[in-house]
Amino acid sequence: MGDALDDLIVYQEAVAAEKEIVAILGRLPFGDFRELREQMGETCARVPRHIQEGHGQMTDRHFAHFVFLARGEAREMLGHLSSAHVRRCISDDEHQHLARRYTGIAKMLSSLGRHLHRENRKFRA
After folding, report:
1. Whose CB among 5, 14, 88, 104 lies 3.0–4.6 Å from 47's, allowing a Cys bridge?
2. Are 61 and 1 in contact (CB under 8 A)?
3. Smallest Cα–Cα separation from 1: which of 69, 61, 58, 71?
4. Which residues contact 56 (CB under 8 A, 6 or more apart)?
């Protein structure tokens, strides 16, 4: 793909969001909800990982496939955030902020995926 992965704003946002999630997972309230903590940790990591994996594919449509997987993970994180909020692991403000962040990431991924699917450029190894 012509641009470097680190130049993709959605990738930058996904990495920044992962850092935010990791920072809150070490809090004491998450100690009582091990499964939720593990799910959130894995889900937040999969968003940028799918983008990264897709970036190395041979066509835009292959990249789009991984972008849409990343979008699904971002949407899944919204459910985890709601659970963390209900269980009082995160505050109202944190829930709203992180939900907005992951909703924005999902929207950016939708746009990128649609663009890549339309373009379907092929790349040489």
Report:
1. 14
2. no
3. 58
4. none
Q: Dihedrals φ, ψ of 33, to 5°?
A: -130, 65
pTM for this one? 0.92
In whole angstroms, give the CA distance from residue 30 to residue 85.
Answer: 11
Q: Where are the domains of the chain?
A: 5-119
Q: CA-CA distances (angstroms) from residue 46 to 66, 110, 124?
A: 10, 16, 26
Residue-wise pLDDT for 76-118, tens only, equals: 999 999 999 999 999 999 999 999 999 999 999 999 999 999 9
- State the pLDDT at residue 3: 56
Residue 2: how many other CB atoms lie within 10 Å: 6
